[in-house]
């Protein structure tokens, strides 16, 4: 059973804080192992990657078999059914259309002092995308990572996807192809992250690595951060549904379960202003749970981390929601836009009862890589912005330097940075002599 | 003497790679110490912070003395000269004007399927800014960190600035006041970072921490990352100047020295298409070095990490520059805009001979917190974007769900996420029954 809370209960605040701080994930300490793998790949390159692939993925490869050839990719893609291909194409088109609107704009202007200022955005030259193998090998995640990179203009996009025992997911390859991925390597784990970051004879190094992975992959990403850029380190998935009584309890139950089925550490929370409705949802969850193939996982998540919170008003729901700062937030209420305006911290908001969060996972358009573990307080989901960087621009005329240079000299002096000041002074002196 | 390279030399590529990979900083391993300090502050709050402040800053405080009172701030600010105050005000105004143009825009649209999509930006609620004490206590850095946060709309901005032996830098307090900082605490080190991240009785926790610091501060920021957001971990400063022969060697020498004087680990590189001009700059550096108060620091940086590279053409200069991906790039050439267009990776570009990098450090307008250590390949300088986050929005109508829902069902099925699919199926079924 999930926890039932009511803001009118005496112990509410304490119980809510407990819910907020529940430690849902035990990260095994693999840092030392990962450090060894990275050092090995840096020292021995391909050779180390191939040995580790044989060991962990039970797959013997030669260096020239690491990458899928275009012919291999086509052969696997041909195994995908027409229905699945169409669905992936629709998803790719919608994700691309959404992300194309995110491209940031350059700017340039000349101000009163005569200084021309501005900035310019350029894409990361090369990016690497980690795709997990096995059960969590999701073609939708390939689209969600690769399309923003390609929309940003990343010239070279490489994917690593382990194929344990040689088992390949054709949908992952098709998603990569639809997204315009340039290179696909059948390697995984910390060794794949190390190869992308430092390069080997076969794999050229990249500048940025994104994508989900297990504890080894996460530890490797943390370690190579600085040498390359990385995206966030994602925690287990979460959903918060705010629903009034005018909802179908079964729909809300399925939305809660669609997070719970991801992972035993996932968290699903319902906030409602009607206690009886909350009870109906709880019953609907139990009923649906019995029918799910993944009922062991979903049931454990719901039992250990699920919650149904009854509030006095939707305003109160918004306040609690901001304290949770959920990754996914569904607003199943009569006026979802009005409620949405009261929310400050959320990765993604799904408005109204016809927008189940699963739509956002696949075909809505917005990215499904979103900030977990309350980090929506300070970070955003994956976007085109993760694959571009800004160069600021400044150009002074002699007149502009005269106007603002003396202030720079003064501040350099106050910070005891003499050469800073002199670099301005020498120019101003020369300008003054020229005028004299 | 710095290293002299020429792209026509046989060993150039090897020597250039050596320059690129030079390890300029030995990070002392303080991680264990820092972990202990953070745990102590989490466990004992104010009490731990006060003890550590007494120990490291030789300053005995009570909890209610941790924050500067408004009266204290005013008293210190009154010590600042009119000239310095005016210079700080000019800097603050220009930095604010530049950053106000960075505010990102919300978007919302309805597509062909009838889905209303978009996103919304909101500020981080509370941010903390670490300001170093002692020699590296720069009021300009206070402006560069605090103004983007306030432009973004951060509601609560707290500064921590250690005051070893009780010595206060009035300019830091004035910069904080001009930037609109809300709270100023006279604490520093890992204990200040821990207090900002986890909160104490006196200091409420923040959501994001930015600002430079020593090895202890950097290690603490790495450790609290995840609990709060952080900005980059900055390395030692760098400048690359590309200059043709029509420049005053003395000006260029001063620009190179204005990085070198920061730190023995700083790096200054000149690329020129005229070997004789490079020689003149080298001589001018030696001459100026003799006159600098910080000649020991600047001289060590120039000797150990400085370089003068002669190239065949400015195109070749641009290519080398992108391989360096410099933090600061000065283009002192006849047509700096044309050369700038050939550059992809740089934190900030200063165009033309009247734009010494020092202008950018203080009064130009763009931020001086910039990506170091080749990270301009994948990251940007500090900006308003570091203090906002995006919430994506999606709203389906029944018609939109009918149009794109089946593709979501198909993909959920192919990923074996049954509840995901059912959350769409249940709604579509109900819509179809309603129509029947």
UniProtKB/TrEMBL annotation, chains A, B:
Catalysis: reaction(s): L-histidinol + 2 NAD(+) + H2O = L-histidine + 2 NADH + 3 H(+)
Q: Which GO terms describe its biological process?
A: L-histidine biosynthetic process
Metabolic or biological pathway, per its Swiss-Prot or TrEMBL entry: Amino-acid biosynthesis; L-histidine biosynthesis; L-histidine from 5-phospho-alpha-D-ribose 1-diphosphate: step 9/9
What name appears for this protein in its UniProt entry? Histidinol dehydrogenase
Cofactor dependence is on: Zn(2+)
EC number, as in UniProt: 1.1.1.23
What's the family? Belongs to the histidinol dehydrogenase family.
The note on cofactor binding and number reads: Binds 1 zinc ion per subunit.
Q: Which organism is it from?
A: Actibacterium pelagium
Name the active site residues. 327-328
Single annotated GO MF: histidinol dehydrogenase activity
Q: Does the keyword Oxidoreductase belong to this entry?
A: yes
| PROSITE patterns according to UniProt | HISOL_DEHYDROGENASE (PS00611)
Q: Where does substrate bind?
A: 237, 259, 262, 328, 361, 415, 420
Write the record's keywords in alphabetical order, separated by commas: Amino-acid biosynthesis, Histidine biosynthesis, Metal-binding, NAD, Oxidoreductase, Zinc
Provide GO CC annotations from the record: cytosol
Where along this sequence does the record place binding of NAD(+)?
130, 191, 214
- Binding site residues for Zn(2+): 259, 262, 361, 420
Domain of life, per the record? Bacteria
Q: Which InterPro entries match?
A: Ald_DH/histidinol_DH, Histidinol_DH_CS, Histidinol_DH_monofunct, Hstdl_DH
**Top enzyme category:** oxidoreductase
Function, please? Catalyzes the sequential NAD-dependent oxidations of L-histidinol to L-histidinaldehyde and then to L-histidine.
Query: What taxonomic ancestry is recorded?
Result: Bacteria, Pseudomonadati, Pseudomonadota, Alphaproteobacteria, Rhodobacterales
């Amino acid at each position: 059973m999930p926890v039932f809370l009511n803001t009118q209960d005496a112990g509410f605040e304490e119980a809510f804080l407990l819910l907020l701080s529940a430690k849902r994930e035990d990260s095994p300490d693999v840092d030392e192992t990962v450090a060894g793998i990275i050092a090995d790949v840096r020292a021995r390159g391909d050779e180390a990657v191939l040995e580790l692939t044989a060991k962990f993925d039970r797959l013997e490869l030669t260096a020239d078999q690491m990458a899928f050839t275009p012919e291999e990719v086509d052969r696997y893609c041909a195994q995908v059914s027409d229905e699945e291909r169409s669905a992936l194409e629709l998803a790719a088109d919608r994700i691309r259309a959404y992300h194309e609107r995110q491209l940031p704009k350059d700017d340039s202007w000349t101000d009163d002092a005569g200084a021309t200022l501005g900035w310019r955005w350029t894409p990361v030259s090369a990016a690497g995308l980690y795709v997990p193998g096995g059960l969590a090998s999701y073609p939708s995640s390939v689209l969600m990572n690769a399309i923003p990179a390609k929309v940003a203009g990343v010239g070279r996009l490489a994917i690593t996807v382990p194929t344990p025992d040689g088992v390949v997911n054709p949908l992952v390859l098709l998603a990569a192809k639809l997204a315009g991925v340039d290179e696909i390597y059948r390697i995984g784990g910390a060794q794949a992250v190390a190869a992308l970051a430092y390069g080997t004879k076969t794999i050229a190094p990249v500048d940025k690595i994104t994508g989900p992975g297990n504890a080894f992959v996460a530890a490797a990403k943390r370690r190579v951060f600085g040498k390359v850029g990385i995206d966030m380190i994602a925690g287990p998935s979460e959903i918060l549904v705010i629903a009034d009584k005018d909802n179908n309890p079964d729909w809300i139950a399925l939305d809660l379960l669609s997070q719970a089925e991801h992972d035993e550490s996932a968290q699903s929370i319902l906030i409602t202003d009607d206690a009886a409705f909350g009870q109906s949802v709880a019953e609907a969850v139990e009923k649906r749970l019995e029918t799910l193939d993944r009922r062991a996982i979903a049931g454990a998540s719901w039992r250990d981390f699920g919650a149904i919170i009854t509030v006095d008003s939707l305003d109160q729901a918004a306040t609690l929601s901001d304290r949770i700062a959920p990754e996914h937030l569904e607003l199943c209420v009569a006026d979802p836009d009005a409620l949405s305006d009261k929310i400050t911290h959320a990765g993604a908001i799904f408005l109204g009862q016809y927008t189940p969060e699963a739509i956002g996972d696949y075909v809505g358009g917005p990215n499904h890589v979103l900030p977990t573990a309350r980090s929506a307080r300070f970070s955003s989901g994956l976007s085109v912005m993760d694959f571009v960087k800004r160069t600021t621009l400044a150009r002074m005329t002699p007149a502009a330097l005269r106007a603002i240079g003396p202030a720079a000299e003064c501040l350099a002096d106050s910070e005891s940075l003499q050469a800073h000041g002199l670099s301005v002074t020498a120019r101003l002196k020369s300008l003054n002599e020229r005028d004299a």
